[in-house]
């Protein structure tokens, strides 16, 4: 393959648009194919607005194409969690030991539009909306799309699938027998609800990510620039206590009055939102390989969709793009070398964040409200202050650094072991001192 042939990117979502920007910067002509119409001219589907927590990994990628400030202008910083118990007052838990580090609430649509604008402005990027990929020959790079005008075909030297969790590119590779996948769906789904502004002001503190931990269910709320909050309720999809169990407006009102009493006066459209907003599915996608013959590769959710409980899906997708760009650099734009290297570097990291995201669900829906958890967090922050740079919490490493996810898991394990050993040493020392005192007492 010659350098600088056209690259086809399938999916103009977050990863696809960023990828188009990075590739165009390297001098590649890029064809960006998207199944939907241009979102900049359309309306958001009801209950699918999704606001994201954008953190350091995502910002690092955006800084590299000069887009971070533009994106942050539409974002709201959240410096910690605000816990809402069933009764009693709210409690703020800072994300960082310094208290000033923040993750950023941004609408996925606004972020996507900013990236689309950036890609469209670059010479060499051609965006084809209303193009749904339905066929891909991984050996030739021939592509088939369904469009409102019927089927069209295209060809590309390299095809990058950035078409999300239900990736058609992945499906095609599966069909050719060159890839295997596993899909692990949670028995939880999610539904969006809204807290509008009150008298033009935020109804809750906009500087926090709000959490209502309820054990078997959980709700979170992130602020929007229009002073509303988008709430996401996570609950089992089936069973006696589940989305399926609330069949009437009265049942919905009763349920929220019992479990989320402080939400009820803030959400005047609660029943309507609940009845009409869809229930989304949640799951983890794993597949291997992520690339075939140095010609076709998967990026972002297409390769590794994860559950949203660490707020890292898009951040991780952006990191993929940065790593792919780095591999192209290191391999002199030789795709046949760069794509396998990209897979080697990213696969373990994607698996690490997939596991941490699943573990964080238990933490958010259950543990954050418990006194043991709060004490643990206080001890963690004390250690961070006492050992700056040597003891760093998992949350800070994931959200406020670009330390590879797999290294984060290893480092946190080492830190916990060291603290365990130190604690055992202190206990032994105290036991020794107490024993000596008792012996001395007996002698006296
Ligand atoms: P997508 O954003 O899904 O984009 C895929 C694109 O491909 C879409 O535009 C789609 O229309 C297009 N496409 C699909 N099929 C085809 C086809 N056949 N042909 C052509 N085009 C196609 N991440 C975070 O970082 N922080 C968060 O706080 C966070 N919160 C989340 C909350 C919820 C409730 C959910 C569901 C997700 C959350 N995420 C979060 C995850 C984040 O939304 C995803 O990881 C991110 O959108 C992945 O980007 P992507 O470009 O890989 O896929």
Can you walk me through this structure?
This is Kynurenine 3-monooxygenase. The protein has 444 residues and is an alpha/beta fold. Among the domains are: 7-42 and 54-73 and 107-180 and 284-362, FAD/NAD(P)-binding domain (3-Layer(bba) Sandwich), CATH 3.50.50; 371-443, no CATH class. The protein has helices at residues 14-25, 56-64, 68-72, 108-120, 168-175, 249-259, 270-276, 301-304, 313-330, 335-365, 371-386, 394-399, 405-443, and strands at residues 7-10, 30-33, 51-54, 76-78, 80-83, 91-94, 103-107, 125-128, 132-137, 142-147, 150-155, 158-161, 180-195, 208-213, 218-223, 229-236, 280-288, 291-292, 296-298. The protein has a seven-stranded mixed β-sheet with strand order 6-5-14-15-16-13-17. Helix 1 (14-25) packs parallel to helix 4, helix 1 (14-25) packs parallel to helix 9 and helix 10 (335-365) crosses helix 13 (405-443). It starts with 6 loop residues before the first strand and ends with a helix. Flavin-adenine dinucleotide is lined by residues 10-16, 33-36, 50, 52-53, 108, 132-133, 162-164, 168, 190, 232, 280, 300-302, 308, 311-315, 317.
| Biggest pleated sheet | 7 strands, mixed
Query: What is the topology, as strand order, of the major beta sheet?
Result: 6-5-14-15-16-13-17
The H-level CATH homologous superfamily of the domain at 7-42 and 54-73 and 107-180 and 284-362, spelled out, is FAD/NAD(P)-binding domain
Q: Using the alpha-carbon principal axes, give the shape.
A: globular
Rg computed from alpha carbons, rounded to a whole number of angstroms? 24 Å
- Please report the total strand number as a whole number: 19
Bound molecules: flavin-adenine dinucleotide
GO biological process, one term: anthranilate metabolic process
EC number: 1.14.13.9
Cofactor: FAD
Enzyme class: oxidoreductase
């Amino acid at each position: 393959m010659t350098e600088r042939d056209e690259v086809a990117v399938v999916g103009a979502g977050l990863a696809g648009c960023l990828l188009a920007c990075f590739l165009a910067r390297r001098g590649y002509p890029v064809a960006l194919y998207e199944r939907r119409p241009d979102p900049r001219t359309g309306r958001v589907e009801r209950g699918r607005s999704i606001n994201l927590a954008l953190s350091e990994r995502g910002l690092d990628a955006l800084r590299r194409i000069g887009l971070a400030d533009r994106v942050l202008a539409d974002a709201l910083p959240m410096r910690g969690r605000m816990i809402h118990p069933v009764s009693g007052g709210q409690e703020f838990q800072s994300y960082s030991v310094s208290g000033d580090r923040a993750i950023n609430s941004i609408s996925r649509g606004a972020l996507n539009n900013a990236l689309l604008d950036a890609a469209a402005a670059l010479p060499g990027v051609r965006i084809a909306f209303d193009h749904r990929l339905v066929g891909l020959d991984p050996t030739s790079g021939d592509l088939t799309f369904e469009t409102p005008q019927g089927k069209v075909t295209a060809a590309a030297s390299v095809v990058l699938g950035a078409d999300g969790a239900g990736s058609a590119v992945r499906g095609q590779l599966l069909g050719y027998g060159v890839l295997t996948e596993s899909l692990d769906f949670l028995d939880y789904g999610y539904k969006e609800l809204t807290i509008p502004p009150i008298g033009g002001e935020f109804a809750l503190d906009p500087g926090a990510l709000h959490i209502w931990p309820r054990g078997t269910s959980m709700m979170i709320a992130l602020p929007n620039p229009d002073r509303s909050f988008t709430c996401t309720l996570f609950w089992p999809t089936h069973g006696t206590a589940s989305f399926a169990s609330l069949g009437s407006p009265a049942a919905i009102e009763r349920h929220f009055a019992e479990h989320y009493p402080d939400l009820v006066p803030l959400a005047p459209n609660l029943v309507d939102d609940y009845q009409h907003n869809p229930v989304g599915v949640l799951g983890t996608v794993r597949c291997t390989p992520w690339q075939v013959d140095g010609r076709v590769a998967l990026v972002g959710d297409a390769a590794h969709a994860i559950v949203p409980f660490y707020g890292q899906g898009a951040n991780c997708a952006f990191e993929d793009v940065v790593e792919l760009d780095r591999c192209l650099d290191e391999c002199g734009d030789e795709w046949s070398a760069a794509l396998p290297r990209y897979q080697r570097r990213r696969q373990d990291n994607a698996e690490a964040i997939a596991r941490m995201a699943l573990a964080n669900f238990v933490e958010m829906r259950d543990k954050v409200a418990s006194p043991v958890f709060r004490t643990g967090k206080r001890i963690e922050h004390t250690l961070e202050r006492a050992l700056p740079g040597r003891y760093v919490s998992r949350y800070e490493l994931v959200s406020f650094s670009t330390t590879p996810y797999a290294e984060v898991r290893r480092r946190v394990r080492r830190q916990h072991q060291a603290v365990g050993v130190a604690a055992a040493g202190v206990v032994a020392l105290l036991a020794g001192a107490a024993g000596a005192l008792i012996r001395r007492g007996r002698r006296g």
